[in-house]
Input
Amino acid sequence: VYEEKMKVVVVGGGIMGMMTARELSKSGAAVTLLEQGKLGQESSWAGGGILSPIYPWTYADSVNALAKWSQQQYPQLAEELIDEGGVDPQWTQSGLLVLANETTADAMFAKATNWARGYGLACERLDGRMLHEQEPELAESHTQGLLFPEIAQIRNPRLIKSLRASCLKRGITLLENSPVSGFVVSGKKVRGVSVGEDKHEADVVVICAGAWSARLLTSMNIEVPIKPLRGQMLMYRTSPGQINRITLSEGHYVIPRRDGRVLAGSTQEDVGFDKSTTQEALLELRHTAETLFPFLAEAELENHWSGLRPESKAGIPYICMVSGLEGLFLNAGHFRNGVVLAPASVRLVTDLILQRTPILEPLDYGLER
Output
């Protein structure tokens, strides 16, 4: 489509932005990435890194289609990133254990197993004895569970470091502390962006700014229904192997890392761009985690933080060209699933930019859907 080397500006330096920059660079584009703060320090850093939507059978097919494509790519992507930057993002197939209470178990399991069959995903129902064989430290009161052994996780802060190293190795220009203040427009075409007095010219601009994406586009009178939703999380320090599986119960989860750290999350709070942590959330998350795994009550609580998820309608991201403005693309609004949906989202937006045959039906991810 472009005679010379296409110049691309990616706005947003989280996992989505860095992966988008890397994918476009692989296709031969000259890429500059602009991040308003530090790379990967917003929701990319704050999330849990579960490589599956939580209760995936409750999500739209369009979300699960992105997840399935991405899940198949992640092992190879992790290997590539280790080779390119020397940082292991710790892709780990820990499996996902979904607990249920006696009254709702049958209905939930029927839906979940039916969904898993449709997606070709292994799924096994466990009774109390089998549950405690999988997780000896799980509270005795849990007697019903479903195991998805193929579900994996990745360690977000390490993924950020490995993507940064990969981008630098590929010659991508990474500019931190560079908040975009406006767009350079000529007629009906975007020609770049402004950062204060500086102009960054481009053939294509891709907005990957998470919860901040809507705010950026408002200046162009473009309405994008993405808003921040705060999620708070905790981290315990334990010994490796005390918890083996990602464990999900009543909307909360516990994630064991390879080094014995255990993450517990997460809240969903509509408080705008407020990233402060609260005592109320700390108590709620502690109670849930320590009720699931009682030994955590004795473990060292190492950290408590929050991030702003980019909430979108039904959690379906916007991966599209912004109509009416040639050269402006959007890859944002992934809600709770940015990490798991990233490889497919990035490939799809690159397909659209390069006018290749797209991996998935693009209309499902448009602003006009």
Summary: The two ends are 27 Å apart (CA to CA). Residues 46 and 307 are 5 Å apart (CA to CA). DSSP finds nine helices and 17 strands in the chain.
